[in-house]
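User: I'm putting together notes for a lab meeting next week and I want to include a structural view of one of the chains we've been expressing. I don't have a solved structure, so I'd like a prediction I can at least talk through. The sequence is below, exactly as it appears in our construct file.
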Amino acid sequence: MPVISVSMPEELIDQLDTVAERHGYTGRSEVVREGSRALLTEFEDDRLANQQLAGTVSVFSDFETQPIERQLTTLRHEYERSIASITHSHVGDSCLDVLVLETDRDELATVVGKLRAIDGVKTVEYSLVPLEGSDNCGCR
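Assistant: Thanks for the context. Below is the predicted structure for the 140-residue chain, given as structure tokens.
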């Protein structure tokens, strides 16, 4: 199996080690492989393909990281047809931005990916509801 090098903060490495120990993984590489598989298949649910979706996306970020606000504004302008609103709150020592979108799966996946790539973002979670009368829900 090829070996790759990945840079990450010490805190994240500690969390990987804790998960590996608590859940019986052989090591952090196994945790990273499983997380990578989950991320790569996250938006592959064919039940959601070719449907308009309503979605909420929650973004937790560091309070001290100011460029996040500029990047969120840029993203909002780039996807203004899809992003209905963004609200900003302070929760503990973090910022919480909630985006409401109306779009298709592929564009939502792109927005979520861009949010996850912003430096200082801790987590991005989302919930989806199909708008075309379907009972299928892709909640994550």
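A couple of points you could mention at the meeting. The beta strands are 53-62, 83-91, 94-103, 121-130. The chain has two domains: 10-41, 47-130.

User: Perfect, that's what I needed.
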